[in-house]
């Protein structure tokens, strides 16, 4: 076990499924000396005398071992399904070619569900929805491959172009440089999270003058879909966040978040998401004195976006925080406990709100971890909840937290899914921008047939930002 830094924590336990074998699993059942188990990172003197507690640790570790063994086959299955869907999509659009994962036409499943890549030009910089509408498109784009992102940002979003005083479109190199720097430097570990660097007072671009910001940066990344170590600990007198997300962002084992990471000579230099993003953003902000920063993400990417801002505050990165215009998350799960919420509010939401947590309908992910779980994780920031008619309510908690399996709920779920299906057809008929693709329509039909089937889609968040009206900036 690596040496513990006492100023980080004096009460911790991390399960290591990658080290667990038959001997380690049996040792958990029959020996209270958990600290001597290779599959458990904790103080060597740690003992757990309660058999019920050791059994809970044993089952947790066994489940992690099972998930770890399935991570490879599941990843291969996901890649195969994505490839087949892209092949079908090519055929439906008249392209008789085999999909290439690295090509600018290859889409993720999320990109096939919602094919929109253009920004809504009707939302002007003075609109309260301007930041959130651009952020949701950035977080959606973050699921795609590098060439796809480059093509969308340069061709569709026209990053690097602006209108001069005579109305002519001219090249603006700073925006392109900012985007390329983030795209090339940031490690691929933060799925669904994005960054945007916007110049103050971003004007229109191209003939349409749609209010596209002059400088913007979007970075793809990804939560590693293999199970990470599980933390089992008593509530310590420090803020707590989910290790799944802190580990993906680059937390250092046993020492947490040092301001700088020292590299060991003679060993390959490791690249950590938070530190690379932070240093690159600082360079971009220094080079663009009028720029402002927006951090965004969908699903787990939203959780990572919140943690990124929290660590900036923990490190007292005042130069970056002063330029942080907002953190917009879409379908974000619960990230931290009450102390973490207090820390974030004190450092991010004063004197004005900068964390906006946007949820939609019956999206299941924002309801995790469950309120009844032992972790006691809470929702953070200003909660903006859109119902299935895209009507906005400002709420602390999401309605309908209590899950049940009654017959009435099954009927209600089926009616609600049918409503969404009909609404999608109607909106697509009214305006081409809301027209839904073949995969999403198939999923909506499937949701009617299988009531209660959860879908965590970015499509409805894009619609909500366009149709939802005014976005409040405070309670």
Automatic annotation (TrEMBL):
Gene3D superfamilies: alpha/beta hydrolase
Transmembrane segments: 55-77
Keywords: Membrane, Transmembrane, Transmembrane helix
GO molecular function: triacylglycerol lipase activity
Biased composition (Gly residues): 200-212
Gene Ontology annotations of biological process type: lipid metabolic process
Ranges of biased composition (kind: Low complexity): 220-233
Domain Fungal lipase-type: 272-371
CDD domains: Lipase_3 (cd00519)
Renumbered residue ranges of the record's region Disordered: 197-241
Signal peptide positions (record): none
UniProt protein name: Fungal lipase-type domain-containing protein
Lineage of the organism: Eukaryota, Viridiplantae, Streptophyta, Embryophyta, Tracheophyta
